[in-house]
Amino acid sequence: MKLKQILTKSREIIDEANISAKILKDPKMIKMISIAFRHDHTLPQNVVAKLGPKATDQQIAAEWGNLIDTTLRNNKYGDLSADGKFDDWLMRLYITGSADYEDIHGEAGDALGAWKALSRRGLLAPADQDFNKFANIRQLQRIKNDPRYRAELRRIVDSAEFEKMKRDRKEIVLVDNKRFLVTLPLNYGSCYMFNNATGYDATFCTGSSAGNTYFPHYARSGPVISVLDKENSNSVDGKWQIHAPSDQTKNANQTVNSDRKFSELFPGLMKKIVAAMEAKAEEIKNASLDLAPGGYDIPAAVAELKNKNPISWASEGEPEEENPADNAPGTWTVRHIPSNRTAQLSANSKADLIRKLTTKYPQYPVTDYELTRAD
Questions:
Q1: In a 10 Å sphere around its CB, with 0-12 CB exposed, 13-18 middle and 19+ buried, how is residue 131 labelled?
Q2: 188 by DSSP, 3-state: which?
Q3: For the chain, domain boundaries
Q4: pLDDT per residue over 132-157, tens digit each?
Q5: Contacts from 287-290 at CB under 8 Å and sequence distance 24+?
Q6: How far apart, in Å, are the Cα atoms of 357 and each of 19, 77, 173, 266?
Q7: pTM value surpassing 0.85
Q8: Cβ count within 10 A of residue 152
Q9: Of 273, 332, 320, 321, which Cα lies nearest the Cα of 301?
Q10: Cα 58 vs. chain centroid, distance in angstroms?
């Protein structure tokens, strides 16, 4: 083949893989993307500013294509940008108003990556192999939490990245009792581990592959609060994330955004969260200096939390029953849930045992362990 023919063929391949090049071949698609773009309030402000108020439809469509290309190249399962069906699918969702940029960039990339990782390994059930059956991102996200696939997906994810997030995680524990673990994340690593480390794989954009962008965006305006129901961690309602400034009290797959639902599931918990924030106000303020100017103003943050979640704040919970054996010396069977390894350890109390574990293995959260009295 002559050099000119080789170069021409190479250019055709590159153009086909480039989303913007594909979009700009279709005037109708250009117009529809431009209309959706101009009504999308979740777009990065630097992109909107760069385009300016007089951007043409072609310039907008090209920039949108570049954004989607970036999303598909960066997810925890590998580069998806060469698979044309994915960008076509995302374009349809965008122009029909089924998804905005935050939905796509914060959630779709990892969901698509999970499907592709399972598909190319031949691990999908026949009903899930047909990509065209998925009408929206929520339907596709079901794959990530299907018990048939969850363990395999966790093995596929780069273990080095997972370990790095464990080491880098920064958070302040607000509530940690028999039923709940509530934390105030201070970085993306904390949100990533909350999404992925225990139980149901949550879809919060703050803990997705794009979370290093979204966590600072949300944290800048006020505290993000992560809530884990230890007794129901494998349920979609076992994980919640609260961000009062953006009026979000959402369950793990974000199908529910409801103060009322939170109050029904967890009566009295909001009072405990508020009490902990007030008790740790100075610690939170100092720890959040890099997130918000001057650190978080906890009285103001608490007032907003109460205002946005009035039903949860007004709810009353039953006092928690303590197991007397937890406060006595003894032996416990400790199971490390991710590895399924067990050991028997002695301690002066259950709280003493937890202190020993977190001191010796600071990279592992308390929720990684199942503790059972052995004597």
A1: middle
A2: helix
A3: 3-154, 161-314, 325-373
A4: 889 999 999 888 888 888 878 877 87
A5: 287/170, 287/172, 287/186, 288/186, 288/219, 288/223
A6: 49, 31, 16, 28
A7: no
A8: 13
A9: 273
A10: 33
